Amino acid sequence: MSTSSPPRAGTDADRPPSAGVEVTGPPSAGVEVSGEPEDGPDADSPVEVCTEAFCRTGARRYARQWAQEAARLGFVPTSAAESERLLLVHTVRLAQAVLAEPFAAQPGYDVGRALVDAHLTDPGILDWSLRALGDGFRDLVLPTCPEPVAARRIPALQGALAAGFARALRERTFSQQERIAGAAWVARDRVEQALRDSEARFRAVFAGAATGIGIADLDGQIIDVNRAFADLLGYSVTELRQINVATLFHPDDAAGMWELYQELIGGRRDSIRLEKRYHRKDGSVVWTDLAVSLIRHDDGRPRFTVAMVQDITERRELQQRLGHQASHDPLTGLPNRALFFDRLGEVFATARPTDQVGVCFLDLDGFKAINDNLGHDLGDQLLVAVAGRLADRVAGQGHLVARMGGDEFVILLDQDAACRDVTLVAETALAAVAEPVRIGDRHVSVSASVGVVSGPVGETGVADLMKAADVTLYWAKAEGRGRVACYDPDRRAREQANEDLVAGMSVGLERGEFTVDYQPIVNLADGSICAAEALVRWQHPERGLVGPDEFIGLAEETGLIVPLGHWVLLRACEAAARWLRDFPDARLVISVNLAARQARDPGIVGTVSEVLRQTGLPAELLQLELTESALMATAGEPLPALRRLAALGVRLAIDDFGTGYSNLAYLRRLPIHGLKLAGPFVEGIRSSDRQGLVDGRIVDALVRLAHALGLSVTAEAVETPGQADQLTALGCDAAQGRYFGAPGAEDGITARLAERAARRRGDVTR
After folding, report:
1. Quick one: how far is CA 294 from the chain centroid?
2. How many CB atoms within 10 Å of residue 708?
3. Would you say 119 and 73 are in contact if contact means Cβ atoms under 8 Å apart?
4. What value does the mean pLDDT of the chain take?
5. Where in the numbering of this chain does the PAC domain appear (predicted)?
6. Which of 558, 501, 578, 565 is nearest to 534 (CA)?
7. Considering just the CA atoms, what is the radius of gyration of the chain in Å?
8. HSE on the CB side for 267, CA within 13 Å?
9. Peptide bond between residue 77 and the one before it cis (omega within 30 degrees of 0)
């Protein structure tokens, strides 16, 4: 309900009419309103303009107040300008009625209906309209109308407006009710038709569906079934209508199925979906995909159940066959690796931390040769025979035997197996495999290697256990055929440490973790430094300084010796070039070890040539050292690469001479410039016992032999003055060892060369 006051005379009476608003003609002759209701250029003029009995400014002011109040009180379906224009027409119409002769209240009635037709139906609008008509209408719109006339006629218009508004609103309400009632009847007819159509469709689906459909009450008594349901179970529809669903349950499923059914009809479930067995009328069993839904009353109470069944007997049999094939090896029939890992996972999931788990990893020895020589068909027959023996003698004891692939088998012992038991099982498996196998007209003998690992479940995992078994099998293979190897954590720790070194070696080379130390080599004749041997060191970020004896062998095994050797060669030649530049008279030779793998590298000659070119070091100042084993490992003629290196002018020497199995005739044909006597011979000559005398004679013979071949001799590991004196007496040319200086940084050699140069300058001065 509006609380604003009706318009009063004088509040805006001095404002002129808006542009284009015109009221023409006598009061009773009708009214024409033209133009827009908005204020024009002279809207604020203080001059009041009246035409005959009408005040145009007041009419527009009244209409504007009316429109604003209508917009404030409720929804108005038109714009503000359109509402003001419409209400201006009604304002003028009411003014015309007041001035008309003879007077009639009908226009008020018409205006009331017009408000409803314009959807201005809020009760507050009617209230405001009536009060405004009585309080401010005459003062604003009809300022010249006599008071007695307005006092008689305006209340009559108020009553007529209210009556017209109420009558129109009532008629509109009745019309809407009739439309709603009609729509409800139409909707009901449509719903009933839809229900009839739905029932017809359901009957058609129920009768003709290929899926079996059955309806039962809450006690399980069958109410109705379709033909597909009856055919599935071998009954007639009439017979099934007399049967309770519980009589159809398979005995193995009856208890669980009835429990689920009770949950369903008790309202605790809305549906059930499972694979279930049923008894057919002839006693056979059919597997079905069963879906049961609960149908409720409108108030939610369970009413009956609807079951849909589909025969999946063939599909289930196929799944079982496929499941067996997926978990068993097609050749041998043994469980495959997938089933093995499933069972192993179950052991770790269900066992206590202290329970033991044991695995035997078995691999046939030389099986590839059998396949290559006798053919894959015979090899497959051998695998089948071996698998049969393992199944009889090992799986028969309650252990799982699986084929991992190829000629590998694995045995999983139960949780109570100790290491001794695992070893006994492994020996049983080896004995079974070792017996000759008759295949056709052949007797084939084969052996196997077995890796054994066992321990508490809580101390390992599936992946770690199988990795340990694989490593242990590798140990058994390395030790020879037909062996059982048990897992040794200490040995594995050492191997793991070596693997970590290998993994970090290439990274360490990139990060600059390797350094080169240099050990002086002196001329025994005058004690002057004549060469230096480059020795690589590894400053490991975690293990500290790692000596070459710990990583050089690993580098050779993995092939990392090639990039590492190239790096050492480059650093050593750079140092030698600096020594040559600073001490040209010294002509110091740099000696670098060359591994067998480097010597066999096809690019070794090019590598050495490029390093010499980059550093500017003369080839005759570079000596490459190879061990006897590296040289003798090359069958036939000497490595062509050695001859090409010698042709470059590079010196070649045999390192650790005397510890290998040298063929002197073979060495005579090699382009060798010198020998380096192995440390054990040098160490032996310092003793005065019989062994010392023997070692001394051996060194004397080796030196004589080397000199006869035109080779220089350098002794290694010289640690005492006595050794140095004896080597000098035996005619050895040079020596190195802690007595002459331990390996150190480049600065140490530089200092000795500087001291030697200073001493020579002093001799010249004197």
Report:
1. 42
2. 9
3. no
4. 82
5. 272-324
6. 565
7. 57
8. 7
9. no
User: Does the pLDDT at position 740 exceed 90?
Assistant: yes
Fold of 328-487: Alpha-Beta Plaits (3.30.70)
**Burial class, 595, CB count within 10 angstroms (exposed 0-12 / middle 13-18 / buried 19+):** buried
Whose CA is closest to 216, among 306, 340, 291? Answer: 306
- Helices 561-582 and 746-765 pack at an angle, to 10 degrees, of 20
How sure is the predictor about 181, in pLDDT bands with cuts at 50, 70 and 90? confident
| pLDDT at position 439 | 79
Q: How far is CA 255 from the centre of its chain?
A: 44
* Residues sharing a CB contact under 8 Å with residue 1, sequence separation 6 or more, in sequence order: 123, 124, 127
Q: CA angle 581-584-588, nearest 5°?
A: 95
* Rounded CA separation 586/578 (Å): 12
Q: Are strands 622-627 and 651-657 parallel, antiparallel or unpaired?
A: parallel
Long-range contacts of 553-556 (CB under 8 A, 24+ apart): 554/498, 554/501, 554/502, 554/505, 555/502, 555/505, 555/595, 556/595, 556/596, 556/597
Report whether pLDDT(412) > 50: yes
Tokens of 669: 């044909």
In which region does residue 452 sit, left (phi positive, over 0), alpha (psi from -120 to 50) or beta (all else)?
Answer: beta
448 closest CA partner among 389, 375, 396, 399 = 389
Question: Of 451-465, 570-584, 685-699, which range is least confident?
Answer: 685-699
CA-based nearest residue to 417, from 397, 391, 431? 397
DSSP-derived 3-state class of residue 744:
strand
Per-residue 3-state assignment (H helix, E strand, C coil) for 75-122? CCCCCHHHHHHHHHHHHHHHHHHHHCCCCCCHHHHHHHHHHHHCCCCC
Instruction: Give the 3-state secondary structure of residue 180.
Output: helix
Q: Which CATH architecture has domain 502-759?
A: Alpha-Beta Barrel (3.20)
* Topology match between the domains 209-318 and 328-487: no
Q: Are 638 and 670 in contact (CB under 8 A)?
A: yes
Query: What CATH number does the domain located at 209-318 have?
Result: 3.30.450.20
Tokens matching residue 429: 């498996």
Q: Record the pTM.
A: 0.54
Distance (Å, whole) CA 120 – CA 168: 11
Q: So where are the chain's domains? A: 1-201, 209-318, 328-487, 502-759
DSSP 7: P
Q: CA torsion, points 57, 59, 60, 64, in degrees to nearest 10?
A: 140
Q: What is the arithmetic mean of pLDDT over 253-269?
A: 73
Among candidate residues 752, 753, 750, 531, the one with its CA nearest the CA of residue 620: 531
Contact 23, 31 (CB under 8 A): yes
All residues at 6 or more sequence positions from 110 whose CB lies less than 8 Å from its CB, including other chains: 93, 164
For residue 66, give the amino acid letter.
W
Q: Token pair for residue 39?
A: 């204020």
639 touches 608 (CB < 8 A):
no
Enclosing H/E stretch for 655: strand 651-657
What pLDDT is recorded for position 624? 95
Question: Is the C-alpha dihedral spanning 500, 503, 506, 512 positive or negative?
Answer: negative
Contact (Cβ atoms closer than 8 angstroms) between residue 706 and residue 715:
no
